[in-house]
Amino acid sequence: MHPQMGSKGFMVNRRAFCSFGAASTLAVVTGGAKMQAQSKNASTNSARLSTGNGEWTYDLVPHWGMLPEGKKFGGTHGAITSDKDGNIYISTQSDTGIIVYSADGTLIRQIATDYPEVHSMQYTVEDGNEVIYTVVQKGTPKENWLFLKMKTDGSILQKITAPKEAGFKASNEWRITSAVPGPDGSIFIANGYGDSRIFRFDKQGNYKSSFAGKGDGDGLCNCSHGLAVDMRYDQPLLIVCDRENLRLSHFDFDGGFVGHVTQHMRRPCQVSFHGDNAIVSELQGRVTILDKNNVPVAFLGDNPDKSQWASYRLEPSSIGATVFSAAHGCYIDSNANIYVSDWNKTGRITKLERRSI
Predict the structure, then answer these.
(1) Contact (CB, 8 A) for 226 and 190
(2) In this structure, are residues 225 and 192 in contact, taking their beta carbons and an 8 Å threshold?
(3) Any signal peptide, and if so, which residues (predicted)?
(4) Sign of CA dihedral 106, 112, 114, 116
(5) Euclidean distance between CA atoms 351 and 59, whole angstroms
(6) Cα dist. 332→160, 162, 252, 336 in Å?
(7) What is the mean pLDDT of residues 174-181?
(8) Which pLDDT band, with edges at 50, 70 and 90, does 357 fall under?
């Protein structure tokens, strides 16, 4: 049984969020250039720079993920994942495509350069093969708003475009934001920037059904931005980042609404899991860690400057190194290290290394 499910149904967690300050100095690499962020309390560059609290205290890794001279991330309006060897995949908002790094930040290769705006990525293994489920906002030539399943070398295995069964009257109504495989091989695709419906396809890409849709009531979403499969409970569930309703919601894989996981968030974008914990990137300058009961146990990079929240026009040099302005993509690896992509006009990638306690 779900830990918050009782005889009267799913109970919403309303525990209040609190804030943790962060002030330090770090040399941050963005767009191939080193930029210095200074705070009032910083005295030397040698100080260990940290964020979070308790067992979720993290040190920032300087200079991680440097790009070749002249290359820019271009917004990092995307996602982060890894493969079985621990290599890190970061999608960009530019012809850089998806960048593949080793865990220490060494650039290995670039893939999917024909698709310069991959918005989401979900790694899985199917029939012994490593694959990544993605959604693409922009591709060349003119392959926009489509689902792609690709190998880790970037070769394309499957494409899904807007289904006729959706009843769309215009091409701009299909504006997908996330895709994940279900336990039975079904493919779930969120039309987050469109009508917020979530579409279900079979493994071959045939349309099966849709659910959710635009609104603020139970079972509806206002920007179904991110999807993930939540395996923390007896029954696997689909977790949805209902961004503009400021909440996470659970659905079953038949499209049935289960309940709101937690509310009062700051525009949640994507979710990554580590054991019983969920890591959530929030567009309004924060990353939140939830426990199995979906109570917040830590906040990372909490930005006290509200004027910077979700501001694409920011130069990364104006963002404090220990805070986020618009945390869009997030990923936690097997060692509990966290990677975050900030949404701004040139992009910023941060690696947070969990401190031993």
Answers:
(1) yes
(2) yes
(3) none
(4) negative
(5) 9
(6) 28, 31, 24, 6
(7) 98
(8) low
For the chain, what is the domain count?
1
Picking from 40, 34, 43, the residue whose alpha carbon sits closest to that of residue 22 is: 40
Query: In angstroms, rounded to a whole number, what is the distance separating the alpha carbons of residues 60 and 127?
Result: 37
5/340: higher pLDDT: 340
Indicate whether 62 pLDDT > 60: yes
State the CB neighbour count (10 A cutoff) for residue 48. Answer: 9
The three-state DSSP-derived secondary structure of the chain is: CCCCEECCEECCECCCCCCCCCCCCEEEEECCEEEEECCCCCCCCCCCCEEEECCEEEEECCCCCCCCCCCCCCCCCCCEEECCCCCEEEECECCCCEEEECCCCCEEEEECCCCCEEEEEEEEEECCEEEEEEEEEECCCCCCCEEEEEECCCCEEEEECCCHHHCCCCHHHCCCCEEEECCCCCEEEECCCCCCEEEEECCCCCEEEEEECECCCCCCECCEEEEEEECCCCCCEEEEEEHHHCEEEEECCCCCEEEEEECCCCCEEEEEEECCEEEEEECCCEEEEECCCCCEEEEECCCCCHHHCCCCCCCHHHCCCCCCCCEEEEEECCCCCEEEEECCCCCEEEEEEECCC
- Category of 76 on φ-ψ map: left (φ > 0), alpha (ψ -120 to 50) or beta: left
**Mean pLDDT in residue range 116-144:** 95
Containing structural domain, residue 272 = 5-354
Torsion angles phi and psi, residue 264, rounded to 5: 60, 35
Contact 35, 54 (CB under 8 A): no
Is the pTM value of this prediction over 0.85? Answer: yes
Cβ contact 250:264 at 8 Å:
no
pLDDT in tens, 75-106: 899 999 999 999 999 999 988 899 999 999 99
